[in-house]
Amino acid sequence: MAHKTDIEIAREADKRPIQQIGERLGIPSEHLLPYGHDKAKVSQDFIDSVQDRPQGKLILVTAINPTPAGEGKTTTTVGLGDGLNAIGKNAAICIREASLGPNFGMKGGAAGGGYAQIVPMEDMNLHFTGDFHAITSAHNLLSAMIDNHIYWGNEQEIDVRRVVWRRVMDMNDRALRQVVTSLGGVANGFPAENGFDITVASEVMAILCLAKDLKDLERRLGDMIVAYRRDKSPVFARDIKADGAMTVLLKDAMQPNLVQTLENNPAFVHGGPFANIAHGCNSVIATTTALRLADYVVTEAGFGADLGAEKFMDIKCRKAGLSPACVVLVATVRAMKMNGGVAKDDLGTENVAAVKSGCANLGRHIENLKTFGVPVVVAINHFAGDTDAEIAQVQEFVTSQGSEAFVCKHWAQGSAGIEPLATRVAEIADSGRANFAPLYGDDMSLFDKIDTIARRIYRADEILADQKVRDQLREWEAQGYGNLPVCMAKTQYSFTTDPSRRGAPTGHSVPIREVRLSAGAGFVVVICGEIMTMPGLPRRPSAEAIRLNEAGQIEGLF
Amino acid sequence: MAHKTDIEIAREADKRPIQQIGERLGIPSEHLLPYGHDKAKVSQDFIDSVQDRPQGKLILVTAINPTPAGEGKTTTTVGLGDGLNAIGKNAAICIREASLGPNFGMKGGAAGGGYAQIVPMEDMNLHFTGDFHAITSAHNLLSAMIDNHIYWGNEQEIDVRRVVWRRVMDMNDRALRQVVTSLGGVANGFPAENGFDITVASEVMAILCLAKDLKDLERRLGDMIVAYRRDKSPVFARDIKADGAMTVLLKDAMQPNLVQTLENNPAFVHGGPFANIAHGCNSVIATTTALRLADYVVTEAGFGADLGAEKFMDIKCRKAGLSPACVVLVATVRAMKMNGGVAKDDLGTENVAAVKSGCANLGRHIENLKTFGVPVVVAINHFAGDTDAEIAQVQEFVTSQGSEAFVCKHWAQGSAGIEPLATRVAEIADSGRANFAPLYGDDMSLFDKIDTIARRIYRADEILADQKVRDQLREWEAQGYGNLPVCMAKTQYSFTTDPSRRGAPTGHSVPIREVRLSAGAGFVVVICGEIMTMPGLPRRPSAEAIRLNEAGQIEGLF
């Protein structure tokens, strides 16, 4: 029997009108701002009205270091949300929005997979409700206002060589990475080196995802550093008077988007910051709203647990006052094999020894997650080729680590395939066992914060940082930014900064290439290795095959 | 008594749910794709289903050459739509969407004014339903794919010096007018001169507004010329394989937007091409859909009648097979005075002689419009300071031209103030008097088409064009583009190419600076004078004062 593809399954979805999904959460239809019949934004007024309600339990889904075998973190997030609803709980899902640009390079990503998906999939991979376009506009308005400020006399005395605010576009366009602007004479301004990042890399995106409300959004936008003067004092977006207009451009985008799973359960899909130079989680406003409308909220964080979960805990939860009640760590037998040294082409052959050896990566993540004081359960995302002996090996290993592993078949079976995990997660969340604390305190020095993450999460022996980097960190501390958390930008494929080192390496060094201050988002970005903030298109971009077929359906996007 | 501002009036609007507005036109709610509660797109399926219905009467509202005194063309379009409904007719309005970027320079434009407005005004000046963002994405995807094509080996053998496809952004950003891209080394491509236009200047915008349906859209997108080879043969968007993906990005944007007037009458607001390098009318799909749902459709064209109405007739109507039944030419006493030589500061003083002398401009437009075979009625858009003698002068003049003029007080009174005009317009439209024909035939040479417009509409004595321009036109004719209409890009302030020459000048020359081929949109652009396709921000951009107030309302945008 041929399997249906994700898009085939998604197209067969029996979607309910979005008002019905909102009703499940107690959102009156006048407070749902529809975008078509299957998407809606939750009104700011309604969000304001539920601020005093008790919060539900927050469940984080994270994963081992990703391998080409795939782990299915989003699929498990969706499946677990459906599973909790299937066992009679009132649960909602919170995930990130997809970026438009990359879909024209490689095929677009489903939100989940198999029978654990969020729909409408096409819209979510295209313009959706326009949030990213609003972010692009707000970001580029600030860019235009900075250059315009300089053009008309530069009252703020900006050092034109030290404008740090670039432009953005939601497109994979390598030609825009590095450009010279304002050519062509006096009327076009002062020629300057400049460049574009992809929209998800914008600090505006990170801010939208961390802001509590529109007031907080405006304050944070004003706090962004856009340039420096000759005396190196920062020029803020507020000095350019852009914060108000940017907030106006973002007022609709700040309202979380509600969609549904294939099983008609509510899913908030809102915000999508990079998981390297930003924190990689859906918006705080979506998560906190969901927590006031549902008893359980299942969410996820970008990349593996070393990056995603750490930032979720140390940035998002710390800043938003959130306390996760349970962590679900997703692993697959195939990924364990790859961590155990098996090549991708050999994954079809049973290899219990490789699974056993690869479990070291899983074990390290379990241990790390426990340091945050939150109970950890492992979800083994089942693939058809997994053998009983291999699965038993993973389960045995997890038990030996003092945790529990559940085989989950949500991809093939929907909620019915993940009920045992859902039941256990609900029990743990209800038990109140979690005693969350971030990894480090606010008052630790910036360098010590980096050092703590490197030693305790990555298990590195040392940090390599130039004097320049150390001086920069101290300068920011002197300017009052010392209490910020750090946001690590490192390869997601390894605990180390070398993407080829799988498993659970020790004894390595973490070289810091550069540090950047996201003063509005409220974190210091620590760049370890090469980070690409504007992707390019491949030799044969998927866009070449994307088109509408005779039935008006989109072909080639998935 | 202090007058209420447009935004105050708009905020007091008693808006109906958009489904009720759709119902008036017979659009079932499942075929209205809502964007919030007061905006919706009409589904493509519904549009397909009404193609065999008879069409209503099309009424064009155009104006004299604009002066700083203001004519109120959109206000009259909206007022006339309301007026027709008030006298018991089933009428709809079709106007263009506003561009986002310019609102952050100068204050945003209302859609109409006073008691003749379309709402929601804030949304229409911000992201609205995302159409312009979709156009920006589609345009820039093509840009990225061209550079990517060159990067990966340039199979099409594009002459990298002859890439004519720029990028766009819906922002006033002079720094982007002229840039050098792909700096920074091999991985970023080949350095090249490049630049950005504002989104409304994109050929994609013009195409979206002229395409009959999604198939026609895709064909036209494929027909766009993006570059030339060393042998000067054109490279089309189709050669880059971008047409399919661009169509997918535009599929929602192609669906017309439905909103409402203050009097709850239906208004389609869709598309917004430049009125200089493009044809400056709302989309064909909105107009033809409205014509199948309403008995009367009131629409407008950009700038004065010499540019806007001429393009409406010779480009939009010719290409879409539309036949206007009546033209309403908007004039004001104040504008007549300015055309008669009065300075803006002196407009408050009665001056019948200046009105009389200024009527020459009005008379020229009446005469011109009649050459298209369509009956012309003049709407005198009433201002509080107009005196009876001044108004009588305009009416007398219009009568002497064999036409009729109606004093219209829709700005102050809504539909009640424009019923006489509405009644007469309906009579004329119903009379079948119109016998529309475009100004020139398809088979006239491109140069002769330009010459015809210059002599018969602008009343110029001659065209000034370099051999290079004449050769270029002949080359396009040889390539099969000779049957296209021409799209004149000229100042809107005068019949001549000199913006300071008001009234009805004769004996002037029309110098052609440049010609461009919009092969997808299907016209040859003839540039007479300086045309700015990327505006800049002023010294004190309105953005500096735009913000959300405590009540969550937008301040400073209007």
UniProtKB/TrEMBL annotation, chains A, B:
SUPFAM superfamilies: P-loop containing nucleoside triphosphate hydrolases. It is an enzyme of class 6 (ligase). Keywords: ATP-binding, Ligase, Nucleotide-binding, One-carbon metabolism. It catalyses: (6S)-5,6,7,8-tetrahydrofolate + formate + ATP = (6R)-10-formyltetrahydrofolate + ADP + phosphate. One of its GO terms (molecular function) is formate-tetrahydrofolate ligase activity. Its EC number is 6.3.4.3. The keyword NADP does not apply. It holds the Pfam family FTHFS. The keyword Signal does not apply. GO terms for biological process: tetrahydrofolate interconversion. ATP binds at residues 67-74. Pathway: One-carbon metabolism; tetrahydrofolate interconversion. InterPro entries: Formate_THF_ligase, Formate_THF_ligase_CS, P-loop_NTPase. Transmembrane segments: none annotated. Belongs to the formate--tetrahydrofolate ligase family. This is Formate--tetrahydrofolate ligase. The gene is fhs.
